[in-house]
Amino acid sequence: MKKTILLCLSTIFALCVFAQASYTNGIFIVNEDWFGHNSSSVNFYSYDDGSVVYRAYQAANPGMTLGNTTQYAELKKDNIYFCSKQNYGETGGRLIVADAKTLAKKHSLDNIDDADTRAFVTVNDEKGYIGTNSGIFVFNTATFELGAKIDGTAKEEIGNMVLCGDKVLATVRGVGYHVIDVRTNVLEKTIDLGKITTIFVVKGQPYAAVNDATWGTPAASNTEQFIKIDPATFELTAVSTVPMASQNTWFAWKNASPAVDQANEVLYYCPAEGANFICKYDIKSAQFTQQFITFDEGQKMYGNVVGFDPVNNYIAAMTFKNYGDQDYWLTLYNTSGEKVNQVKLNANYWFPAMFLFASKTVPTSVDNVESSKVVAGVQYFNLQGQQSAEPFKGVNIVKTIYTDGTSTTAKVLK
């Protein structure tokens, strides 16, 4: 009898583990959910069979939830970092660390100096930065301990952040962006733009997206400036102007970053809350297509939930009907703008925030990540700071830039 009970328990445990370990080939859909009624949530669409797991974090952690108004998440190696503006009572924190494959909770940080969480960026195996409306905090990704606030970052609200070599670039509301040395956690400088929407990296080249929209939906007359940032000095360089701005969501912070096809250097984004189309901008050719994808009749965008899956080359979009309706769709398109698949979600006020793409292979160490990187370009600098595509005679600082937006540096004698 005991053997039978043990066998049954073992079988149940094995089935639970198998069920949990299924989030490895599909799309995580991070949702605000219905504010005032539910905590935030994350749904998972499976590429394998087209099924959707609803409120997957809650299912993996009975009695626990995500925080309130989850607007950002980062999937990095073994972990997903969910950023919520506030905690949800005692069941969901402002920063939640979950297993990337099972969504099992690893840690919940309920209070970050009483600040609202905005975004997260992983720096290395032991460190990440938490952006808030009260500055940037250091977070130990190995021990899950909250560190100190980085001096000089507490004046204005922090938005999204990106890692570029040994620097983190962090957007600052109404200002521009901070440049932080990740080796010392020191704010090196702040670039004043007066306004900024988001910051992103394409093949190692950082860009700032800037427009003059003052509310969430820019008018057709608002233009967008994609400004190149020098990857060595992090100062502003060339400016590209397109005739349709991306969303400026500082009025109620949401992630406004465009979806980036790194291999082809193409951006996809929705220009306005409630718009029924996606814009495309080819950085290499400077070709802009305002209505590259038009949604099915009656569908429109909440926020800017457009993503690009680099493994399957899918453009993903979440649409809804209107604010008083519980109809939401996930649609996949190919890079020609043709519809590949569409799924209507179960009725609910999901209010989606962003996508995370899960592949079948999740690297488990920095070594594995480095060995799988694809080189996008190499830059050479002499000791006077001059840059060249070819090495200088004497000592060179060689900067290798990868297609995932990261870079490494090394000193080489030619």
Characterise the protein shown here:
- This protein is mainly β.
- 7% of the residues lie in helices and 47% in strands.
- A four-stranded antiparallel β-sheet has the order 3-2-1-28.
The share of residues in helices is under 10%
- First and last CA, distance: 75 Å
Strand content: over 45%
Number of strands: 32
What keywords describe this structure?
single chain; disordered N terminus; mainly beta; 3 helices; 4-stranded antiparallel β-sheet; 32 strands; 7% helix; 47% strand; 414 residues
Compose a concise summary of this entry.
By secondary structure, the chain is mainly β. It has helices spanning 2-20, 56-60, 366-372, and strands at residues 26-31, 41-46, 52-53, 68-76, 79-86, 95-99, 105-109, 117-124, 127-132, 135-139, 146-149, 158-164, 167-172, 176-181, 186-192, 198-202, 205-211, 224-229, 236-242, 259-261, 266-269, 277-282, 287-294, 300-309, 314-320, 328-333, 339-344, 352-358, 375-381, 387-388, 395-402, 407-413. It starts with a helix and ends with a strand.
